[in-house]
UniProtKB/TrEMBL annotation:
GO molecular function: UTP:glucose-1-phosphate uridylyltransferase activity
Origin species: Midichloria mitochondrii (strain IricVA)
Family to which the UniProt record says this protein belongs: Belongs to the UDPGP type 2 family.
Keyword terms, alphabetized: Nucleotidyltransferase, Transferase
Gene name for this UniProt entry: galU
Transmembrane residue ranges: none
Signal sequence, start to end: none
Source species taxonomy: Bacteria, Pseudomonadati, Pseudomonadota, Alphaproteobacteria, Rickettsiales
GO terms under biological process: UDP-alpha-D-glucose metabolic process
CDD domains for the chain: UGPase_prokaryotic
Protein name: UTP--glucose-1-phosphate uridylyltransferase
Enzyme Commission (EC) number: 2.7.7.9
Length: 289
């Protein structure tokens, strides 16, 4: 039976402490990669994948995210007066039909699992996507990782799909790590294991398609020693009764949750832009001497 993935959850309630002091008053998700905030890139990926309802799990001091996806009347009026159609288009590019964007307060930053659980009443009984704006990808097909995962999901709509990518095993402590069997069936997963406990060098990246059963398991998942409810731990419990498939992506992953990954994303996206690619190459030559 065909099941359309109509809804996507964007957990954006974290404090962004790794980017302090920049994120003291500005959400990390509003940091720009080239000329668009991180969350705008994630939104575009979801929209291009056919997502119809966008659910943002926010927190205090995140109002600029709400504002970004709304009209900026003074700016739009000014651009119309100047007849600047290109800039007007860019300012309105992330607007969608009223009622199709939802902003929910997480109230406390209690982890990714808790953020997803906050969306339970909006999701209802549908399979849905989860997108982490920190994870960006550069791929040849350029259709977007979520588009590819939704296409993969249509071959087995009873399964949950998690995006995975090869990492250096020495970095296992940063990720949810999975053990994969035949047919890309997930046999086990563990959140941020020590190298000695990691079942593989395959890490979960920030793209998921989940069945609504996940909310039952999230409700019963205890917080870890850091006080957070981890989505990986809930999915691990769910493995006993539900099928998880791994979608392996060969796209180049950029972890914008840290300084170097974020800086690399700006450089790589600039090099892909016809307006900036040559000036950026010259700049890099000058910097490197």
């Amino acid at each position: 039976m065909y099941k359309k993935i109509r809804k996507a959850v964007f957990p954006v309630g974290g404090l962004g402490t790794r980017f302090l002091p920049a994120t003291k008053s500005m959400p990390k998700e509003m940091l720009p990669v080239l000329n668009k905030p991180l969350i705008h890139h994630a939104f575009e990926e979801a929209r291009n994948a056919g997502i119809e309802q966008f659910i943002f799990i926010t927190g205090r001091n995140k109002n600029s995210i709400n504002d970004h996806f709304d009209h900026a009347i003074e700016l739009e009026n000014f651009l119309e007066f100047k007849n600047n159609k290109d800039m007007l288009f860019l300012s309105k590019d992330c607007l969608i039909e009223p009622g199709n964007i939802v902003f929910l307060r997480q109230q406390q930053p209690l982890g990714l699992g808790h953020a997803v659980w906050c969306a339970r009443n909006i999701i209802g009984d549908e399979p849905f996507a989860v997108i982490l704006a920190d994870d960006m990808f550069i791929e040849d097909r350029k259709c977007g990782i979520l588009t590819e995962m939704i296409q993969y999901f249509q071959s087995d709509t009873t399964a949950n799909i998690i995006g995975i990518s090869k990492i250096n095993i020495s970095e296992s402590k940063k990720y949810g790590i999975v053990k994969i069997g035949d047919g890309d069936i997930v046999e086990d997963m563990i959140e941020k294991p020590e190298v000695s406990d990691a079942p593989s060098g395959l890490a979960i990246v920030g793209r998921y398609i989940l069945q609504p059963d996940i909310f039952y398991y999230l409700k019963g998942t205890e917080a870890d020693k850091g006080g957070e409810i981890q989505l990986t731990n809930a999915m691990k419990k769910m493995l006993a009764n539900s099928k998880f498939r791994a979608y392996r992506t060969n796209a180049y992953r950029l972890d914008c949750g840290n300084y170097l990954g974020y800086l690399e994303a700006n450089v790589r996206f600039s090099l892909q832009n016809s307006e900036f690619s040559e000036p950026i190459k010259e700049m890099l030559k000058n910097i490197l001497g």
